[in-house]
């Protein structure tokens, strides 16, 4: 190819190199390897091994968990002095799908309840309404024969009916969330397996896998860009689902990886990145590739929930998946909504309850004092023959 036919490569925005911004790993950093699968040759399987060496992260008491040669060992999350260490071993990934826990599996959820937690948690949330607590206390007091004013069932049924109807409504709403989460987690992504990109469910994605996203598709995880359809390594993404902004943002693949084709040649590298966090505008990492250390920044990563626009395809390596993604970390779950009127009513009920208790206390004290002073006259009153009990 002559110099006139050679495509013009526009470098991505310059980020400080390792000599200007040295990367000092700490025990809390995550080591995410990059790997693709070479074509099988004699004496070599179509697989690759991605490993995080715990020697770089000395943690007392760390034990490596071994697995068989035909399985994928789970990510071992060990904690020591508040820091986590992650180790990933890949072996014949196309033969078996193994999920390695909520910290690694790309299964996100927005639901509030499970089958076991629905009843206690729903009742706990409902009794945040002070009115329910007030009527519950009245119903309990009415069960005592000395304090009963009306029928025992009559004091329980209204409150039980309201709690039951509200629980049915909350259960239906959470069922719809579960259904939406299932649809989201069962969406398909293109993952590099056996020298070619194959479809895989979002919930089965793993950190370290190389993923290909096509135009107008949603990102299934947080991934560092390796290459794009543009010869300069530029990709355009829309972050409406993440921050509400509709304008397109540019992301860049490093020129060291832009020229590599993971389907035709082996890519072996190591990414040292920060622990999962909620900062959607920040990302600090270094990538060791072919003996070089490449600095990575926010312009080199695309987050889950973003949509690829004006770009035919983009290839990247997953660095955060599932509940570790920035989008899921910022998702606080379905909120328990409270209207302004309800909040004011709670305050009024508290005030009225305090006033009622104070009034009852004063009346009881005055009644006791009156009985003491007129105990000799009580025998004359047919309704107050309690002289013997007061002596």
Spell out the blueprint of helices and strands:
Elements: E1 30-35, E2 78-80, E3 83-85, H1 118-126, H2 130-142, H3 152-185, E4 188-193, E5 196-201, E6 210-214, E7 222-228, E8 234-238, H4 240-243, E9 248-252, H5 255-258, E10 268-273, E11 285-289, E12 292-296, E13 301-302, E14 307-309, E15 313-320, H6 326-329, H7 340-373, H8 387-390
Antiparallel strand pairs: 1-10, 2-3, 4-5, 4-6, 6-15, 7-13, 7-15, 8-9, 8-14, 10-11, 11-12
Describe the model.
With 391 residues, the protein is of the alpha+beta class. The chain folds into two domains: 254 residues, Distorted Sandwich (Calcium-transporting ATPase, cytoplasmic transduction domain A); 50 residues. 27% of the residues lie in helices and 19% in strands. It has eight helices and 15 strands. Strands 5-4-6-15-7-13 form a six-stranded antiparallel sheet. Strands 1-10-11-12 form a four-stranded antiparallel sheet, with no helix packed on it. It has a three-stranded antiparallel sheet with strand order 9-8-14, with no helix packed on it. The N terminus and C terminus are likely disordered.
CATH class of the largest domain: Mainly Beta
Order of strands, widest sheet? 5-4-6-15-7-13
Poorly predicted segments: 1-29, 35-105, 387-391
Mean pLDDT: 74
């Amino acid at each position: 190819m002559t110099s006139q036919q050679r495509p013009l490569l526009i470098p991505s925005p310059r980020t400080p190199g390792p000599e200007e911004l040295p990367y000092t790993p700490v025990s809390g950093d995550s080591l995410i390897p990059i790997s693709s699968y070479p074509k099988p040759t004699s004496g070599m399987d179509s697989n690759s091994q991605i490993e995080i060496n715990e020697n770089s992260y000395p943690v007392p008491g760390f034990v490596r968990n071994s697995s068989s040669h035909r399985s994928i060992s789970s990510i071992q999350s060990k904690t020591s002095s508040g820091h986590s260490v992650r180790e990933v071993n890949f072996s014949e990934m196309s033969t078996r799908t193994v999920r390695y826990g909520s910290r690694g599996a790309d299964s996100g959820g927005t639901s509030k309840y499970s089958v076991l937690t629905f009843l206690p948690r729903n009742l706990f949330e409902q009794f945040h309404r002070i009115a329910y607590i007030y009527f519950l206390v009245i119903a309990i007091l009415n069960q005592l024969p000395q304090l009963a004013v009306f029928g025992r069932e009559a004091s329980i049924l209204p409150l039980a009916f309201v709690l039951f109807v509200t629980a049915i409504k909350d259960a239906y709403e959470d069922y719809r969330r579960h259904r939406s989460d299932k649809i989201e987690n069962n969406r398909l992504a293109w993952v590099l397996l056996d020298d070619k990109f194959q479809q895989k469910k979002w919930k089965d994605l793993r950190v370290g896998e190389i993923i290909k996203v096509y135009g107008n598709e949603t990102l299934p995880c947080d991934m560092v860009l390796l290459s794009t359809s543009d010869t300069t390594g530029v990709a355009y993404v829309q972050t409406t689902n993440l921050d509400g902004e509709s304008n397109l943002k540019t992301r860049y693949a490093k020129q060291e990886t832009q020229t590599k084709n993971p389907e035709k040649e082996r890519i072996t590298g190591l990414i040292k990145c920060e622990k999962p966090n909620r900062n959607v505008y920040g990302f600090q990492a270094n990538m060791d590739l072919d003996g070089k250390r490449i600095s990575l920044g926010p312009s080199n990563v695309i987050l889950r929930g973003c949509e690829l626009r004006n770009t035919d395809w983009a290839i990247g390596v997953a660095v955060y998946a599932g509940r570790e993604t920035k989008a899921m970390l910022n998702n606080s779950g379905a909120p328990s909504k409270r209207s302004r009127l309800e909040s004011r009513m709670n305050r009024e009920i508290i005030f009225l309850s305090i006033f009622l208790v104070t009034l009852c206390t004063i009346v009881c004290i005055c009644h006791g004092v009156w009985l003491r002073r007129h105990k000799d006259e009580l025998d004359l009153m047919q309704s107050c023959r309690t002289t013997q009990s007061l002596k």
